[in-house]
Known about the structure:
Radius of gyration: 21 Å
CATH class of the largest domain: Mainly Alpha
Oligomer: single chain
Shape: flat
Order of helices and strands: HHHHHHHHHHHH
CATH architecture of the largest domain: Orthogonal Bundle
Number of helices: 12
Number of strands: 0
Amino acid sequence: MAHDVKTRRGLTPQRVVETALEVADADGIDAVSLRRLAASLGVTPMAIYRHVRNKSHLLDLMAERLLEDIDTAADDRTTWQDRLRWLLGSYQAVAAAHPAAPFLLSRPFVSPSEPPVTEALLAIFHDAGFDARHSARLLQVISGMVLGPALHRAAWAAATRDHWSDAARGRASMEPPSAEEFPYSRAAQQFLDWSSGPEADLLALELLIGGLEAIADQPRS
């Protein structure tokens, strides 16, 4: 009993969130539960409730913790393209370091760590020539575009780890596409890897910046 009281007194929101992130990175956010966290931390579930209201609140705190690692300080970079590369590159690095990040950051949440990231992105869009209305639209779609490769990686890893279905086995055992009938698919097959990392992230970022450059000076209705 004394050990439990001592452990509970040493419990902090930071410890709860960090432990939850470890669980989510290892087994997915569905595996996060207050009961499991209590067991991992050596406390009762009621001790966890002293720091988080429920699982939804915990997921918000986990997303907030990830946002704190995003570096928005890109003022020494002269062009909006370089500032965007730096900011979104930092965003991608967080997603690459935490397999649970794309799922946590793509869900709706409220966090005091979010406004600085949003403001930095809107400032970059303004410098690129977009007004407030179009900047808001860009903000709505950009997270999904940047997190896309990370979501693919996480979904692929989860499927191969937990749900390697009969359909997946069937596709894996299929004969490779015929070079005569599908020449381009056959040539690209050896490079198709949904678990690819930095190369896919960089390509997604450059496609995004190239698209913004292409539409920045176009008239918009």
